[in-house]
Structures are given as C-alpha cells and as structure tokens.
Amino acid sequence: MKTTLNLDDRILRAAKVRAAETGQTLTRLMEHALRDHLATADSGSGDFRLQLLIKHGQLVPGVTVDDRDALYEKMEGRD
Length: 79
Description:
Layout: H1 9-22, H2 26-40, H3 68-75
Helix pairs in contact: 1-2
C-alpha cells in the first residue's frame, strides 16, 4: 500500500543512510523497523480505549479535503 508520511528531516536522512549501508530500499527498512517495533510493543497491558476529542467547526473558504496543499497553507498562516 502506498501512503504519505511527514517525517522529521533528521530521521529521514538517518534512515536513508542506514538503508544504503545495509543495501536495502528505504521502504524495506521502514517496513522492518515498524514490524519490529510493533512486535515488541506491550500487547498484554489490558484493554485500551481511545478517547477521541471531537471539535465542531465550520468549513473554511478556499479549503477542501481534496486540496491538501491549501489546507497546509491555511494551517501555517500563508493565506
């Protein structure tokens, strides 16, 4: 599956270096790191219930869910 992530520049640079050092693609390195992290996560800590914070708002002119760049510009104050 293809997805987009926003990563810290330093982490991404380090991951690219590690991938090159080990002869892997960046995708393969990320898959292995995530798989290892998930495998070692404490899964026996009991039930977990995620509480969602729900905010009611209104549409912002000029921003749609189809235009990620416009949303980012609005969030960063670059109208």
